[in-house]
Write a structure and sequence with these properties.
This protein is an alpha/beta fold. It has helices spanning 10-21, 27-40, 45-52, 56-69, 88-99, 107-114, 118-127, 146-158, 228-241, 261-268, 288-300, 308-324, 335-347, and strands at 164-180, 199-212, 218-223, 247-252, 273-277.
């Protein structure tokens, strides 16, 4: 074997000794540093091999690499690897086929269409951060007065007027009284709650709710329908159950019954009622929608009702329980960031 004479400069020695002191240095790099340091100290090839428990051929290899390339020679060399067997045209077809909005939305379908394996398709998609299986829903408001209505509602949340109530109002319609065909098992240790997929229908009900933004209490009633007639009855109930000396600011959506001529005529006779309409297709601004989600999860989703009245009783009991220890929903989102996001979506 050809012998290589190792002469270390002070800077190179300090760098190798530093590598040995670091706990994060890989074992193979630490071994190479030891080979060079021991060789520079004049230790023989046989002695180094015995001390480090490695072959003399390996020692010669790293001595040669250091003599030819210095410290850079102790690093792993870039290897060419196996040549790519997938043509650029096939890769482009896999990518464009996924992002073009066609029906090819799975690895297996794309593999059959391009003649490569599903795992290869998956790797190409993952490398380009493409997820054809995922879908994110959205609804972009086209209301030309969006910003004006948006800040009107947000202003009520962030700075409620004095001597006034802020009520988030809406109706949750088509709540079905479903009776499961068989009783399910309750949640227990080691098994999840069970529920049959089929059911008997016993009609639908509509829940009218007014969420008090300041204290979280609910004014509610159930009706068979949700026309302007039922909405007027609900407004009269709000009038009865709130102090007359306070102004009533109501946040609501643009449903037709909310703007019916008879409703507007009644509001003219009750000037302490003030309506604040959310922008079109932006009912998420109304915090009562968050309350309706709780109603669905806590009462409707896992319930089984043999009669419509049983559903109405369950809803009423839930309202009474909530009002005994009301939970307030507080608006915390930054309005400017929301508008920036909406403007970006419109540009796209």
């Amino acid at each position: 074997m050809k012998r290589y004479e190792i002469k270390l400069e002070s800077e190179a020695r300090l760098e190798l000794e530093k590598q040995l002191k670091l706990h994060t240095t890989e074992y193979r790099l630490a071994e190479r540093a030891k080979i060079i340091l021991l060789s520079a100290d004049g230790m023989s090839l046989e002695a180094i091999a015995s001390k480090l428990d490695c072959s003399q051929r390996r020692i010669c290899k790293w001595r040669r690499r250091y003599c030819e390339n210095g410290l850079a020679g102790l690093q792993e060399m870039q290897r060419p690897g196996r040549p790519c067997t997938i043509s650029p045209e096939t890769v482009e077809k896999v990518i464009t086929g996924a992002v073009s909005g066609g029906q090819v939305s799975s690895c297996r379908r794309m593999a059959r269409a391009t003649g490569i394996s599903p795992s290869t398709v998956q790797r190409i998609w993952a490398r380009n951060d493409i997820k054809p299986h995922a879908t994110r829903t959205f609804k972009l408001s086209k209301d030309i007065h969006f910003a004006e209505k948006f800040w009107d509602v947000i202003g009520l949340y962030l700075d409620p007027p004095e001597r006034a109530l802020v009520l988030c109002c809406d109706e949750k319609s088509q709540i079905q009284a479903l009776e499961r065909t068989q009783p399910g098992l309750p949640l227990g240790v080691g098994h999840i709650r069970t529920q049959t997929h089929d059911y008997y229908r016993h009609g639908t009900t509509t829940l009218f709710a007014a969420l008090n933004y300041l204290d979280g209490k609910i004014i509610s009633r159930t009706e068979e329908r949700h026309r302007h007639i039922e909405w007027l009855r609900f407004l009269r109930q709000i009038e009865r159950e709130t102090p007359r000396k306070l102004d009533i600011h109501i946040v609501l959506d643009n449903y037709g019954s909310h703007k019916h001529p008879k409703v507007m005529a009644w509001l003219e006779k009750h000037p302490h009622f003030h309506l604040h309409f959310t922008p079109t297709s932006a009912s998420w601004l109304n915090l009562v929608e968050r309350f309706f989600r709780d109603v669905h999860m806590d009462v409707v989703k896992h319930g089984s009702f043999t009669h419509l009245s049983e559903l109405n009783d369950a809803l009423q009991a839930y309202m009474e329980e909530r009002n005994s220890s009301p939970k307030r929903y507080v608006w915390r989102a930054d309005g400017h960031k929301i508008l920036e996001k909406i403007n970006r979506a419109r540009q796209v």
